[in-house]
Major facilitator superfamily (MFS) profile domain-containing protein (Aeromicrobium wangtongii), 178 residues
Amino acid sequence: MTSRHPSGFRFSDEFIKRWTNRLVIAIFAIGGIGIGLSAATEIDGSPDWLGTVAAIVLIGGVVGPLLAAAVLGGESIRRGGGLVGVLLVGGLGAGGAGQVIDRPWLTWCGAAAVALSVIGFWAMGWIAKVPMYIGLPWAHGDVVQRDDSAPKDLFGGDDPRLRPRRPRGGSASRGPRR
């Protein structure tokens, strides 16, 4: 069984907050570089390949952190849940690509993948007893959570496995025992 934080997630709040901040910064930083490169294509005498590089940087700067966030989000709920995150980002990409290259079947496949991944995230959250909100929580959104039992707090309380270990004086400091 996987240890769970009291909120129902496998990862701590600090870990989730740290990676959320890093991924948001990455989207803005890499996106800014892509916008700068695309603006540089308007300069006379710029190489022809610069527009392609700008597009790749812009798309990669959004898709890469979004994929990482979806995978980490799925894994924070359940081991192997990152596959649902990959399905989500793949569905978004397929839907967008279907619109760009005018392939309606690809758009519908992308929409179906997004719908399946949303259902998958919901089911994983329900099983893991993660509090879920319908609407905005600060705007009096309704909390949807199972009532059978709250997730066990394995990160605090009096679980001896999680207490810091202090080195003992004695045999560890004197060398091998005879």
Notes: The chain has a mean pLDDT of 79.
